[in-house]
Amino acid sequence: MTTLAMRRAAIPLWAWVAGGTILWLVAWFAALPVATCVAFDLLGLQPGSQLGEAVAFFLYDVPKVLLLLTGVVTLVSFLRSFVSPERVRGALAGRGALPGTLAAAGFGVVTPFCSCSAVPLFIGFVEAGVPLGVTFAFLIASPMVNEVALVLLWGLFGPGIAIAYMVAGLAVAIGAGLVIGRLHLERYVEEYVWQVRAGHQGLDVKLTLEDRVRDAWRSTQDIVRRVLPYLLAGIGIGALIHGFVPADLVVAIGGTDNPLAVPALVALGVPLYANAAGTIPVVEALIGKGLPLGSALAFMMAITALSIPEMVILRRVMKPRLIGAFAGIVATGIVAIGYLFNALVG
């Protein structure tokens, strides 16, 4: 063991946690003044100019979103260490349609899986005897309405939009799950999925508090590393929109005066691929330019729950007709939510 490693090992866990918390708070409050100083003082950009505002937006949003993401994922990963995936699947198996769908959507909020996890999750749920509609409620809610998205929305837009997004996403997940369950589409699941047999059950390992904290931090590092490229791309697009896209153009395309604004934005979001963390900076910029809340939420939900890459991944376990039914039902729900929020807020 190196001298540096020995010194790190000698520092108690509570000191690492306290020090990390203090550094997080300092970075949070320093992000805005540092971004402003770099953009307008060090780089010499003009305040109010298109380039200056775009660069300042990017320099401020990158640390702000990364801090929010790091903090919430670490905390939730720590809390989730007390609940195993087998317990989640077991809690959903054997329930009725409505209670199971409600429970599945609720579990989806606190278990943020991306679309790349769709295949093993789908097989695991079917294997555990979870009904198809209940399974879909979880698969929709998990990438679309998770605690990462909610905390980022809360920090960037305030509690109103965060709660509105949670209600909208849960409504889509629960509604789609109930409809899919009623349609009895099990015959459109690939045959080999039904032939999968349960393997060994996860062992309940007794972890110490220190183990849980260290595992949570390792999980956070892994998640941030995987999310970072999409996050930077999303913030970059958001910065360009914030600095260069005229407000009247955004309002003309996605405003309430355009009756096809919501389905157009949903269709635009389908070819894109990102998780909620990557789309939030784009949505932030669009709302700042005057895009109505319902249209912005519909665009965000389409990217996270209806992306083409996710459909390609799901093709490994579903036949095209089931994928089509899933996409059509979810898209209908998202469009309805978009119009509803535009009407309520507008």
Structure description:
The chain is mostly helical and 346 residues long. It has a domain at 84-193 and 215-346. It is built from 17 helices and no strands. The protein has helices at 3-10, 13-42, 50-80, 85-92, 97-110, 118-127, 132-144, 147-157, 159-183, 191-195, 209-244, 247-254, 261-269, 276-288, 293-305, 308-314, 320-345. Helix 8 (147-157) runs antiparallel to helix 9 and helix 14 packs antiparallel against helix 15. Residues 197-203 have low confidence and may be disordered.
Structural class: mainly alpha
Q: What is the succession of H and E elements? A: HHHHHHHHHHHHHHHHH
Shape descriptor reads globular
Sheet-strand content, in percent, reads under 5%
Low-confidence stretches: 197-203
> Residue-averaged pLDDT, rounded?
77
N-to-C CA distance: 62 Å
For the secondary structure, the number of strands is: 0
In brief:
The chain is mainly alpha-helical. It has helices at 3-10, 13-42, 50-80, 85-92, 97-110, 118-127, 132-144, 147-157, 159-183, 191-195, 209-244, 247-254, 261-269, 276-288, 293-305, 308-314, 320-345. The termini are far apart.
